[in-house]
Write a structure and sequence with these properties.
alpha+beta; Alpha-D-Glucose-1,6-Bisphosphate, Chain A, domain 4; eight-stranded antiparallel β-sheet
């Protein structure tokens, strides 16, 4: 399900996407908390990464990207647990353990990065259909995983996707180093999602 809660590897080349997006105008829709400069970068096809503090006081790393697709196929890719390992970097396995009306209990087997060994953890995902997914760890190898996916339509064919996460491994890795690795590696997750949606027939 959440195809990328913890899938972070080195940042891939921006040049492959920049030329395709450079002519796009700045979207009229503004993402909350993002500056005009960041919005301009998003309009050019770049992934914008920033650090923020959530309501619980957790320091989260947030990555945003603009995808040239409607909300629905993006949502379908994000919640497709069975096929997530096909394109999400580092995700070795995804299994839905429980399914309810607006929530699921999901197990991930993932290699987060060179910083942390392969881990298994279980999280609860809460769905606001086609709009938002909030998730948090309920058990497993990591001490804490809290985050969200947010999908915001710019128009019927363009969608902002924002992924935000706080991770506390609970062992020997300082938080500042975890955040540094996430800042460096999250763009690959967002670009993998965009590539996945680009390959899905629409309409």
């Amino acid at each position: 399900m959440l195809n990328g809660v913890l899938s972070f590897w080195p940042v891939i080349l921006w040049a492959m996407t920049f030329s395709v997006w450079a002519a796009d105008p700045l979207p009229a829709t503004r993402l909350q908390g993002f500056s005009s400069t960041q919005m301009d970068r998003l309009a050019r096809g770049q992934v914008v990464v920033r650090e923020e503090i959530d309501k619980r006081g957790f320091k989260r790393i947030t990555a945003a990207v603009l995808i040239q697709a409607p909300v629905e196929p993006i949502w379908n890719a994000v919640v497709d647990c069975d096929r997530a390992p096909e394109f999400v970097p580092g995700l070795k396995g995804c299994k839905v353990l429980e399914r309810h009306a607006n929530t699921e209990i999901i197990e991930h087997h993932v290699k987060i990065s060179w910083l942390i060994p392969e881990v298994r953890y279980v999280f609860l995902a809460r769905y606001d259909h086609l709009k938002r997914i909030d998730f948090h760890r309920v058990r497993g190898d990591l001490r804490s995983v809290v985050g969200s996916w947010v999908l915001q339509a710019v128009n019927p064919q363009r969608t902002f996707v924002v992924y935000s996460v706080h991770i506390d491994p609970g062992f020997f890795v300082p938080q500042w180093l975890v955040r540094l690795v996430l800042k460096q590696d999250l763009p690959e997750l967002m670009l993998a999602l965009r590539s996945r949606v680009d390959g899905v027939p629409q309409g």
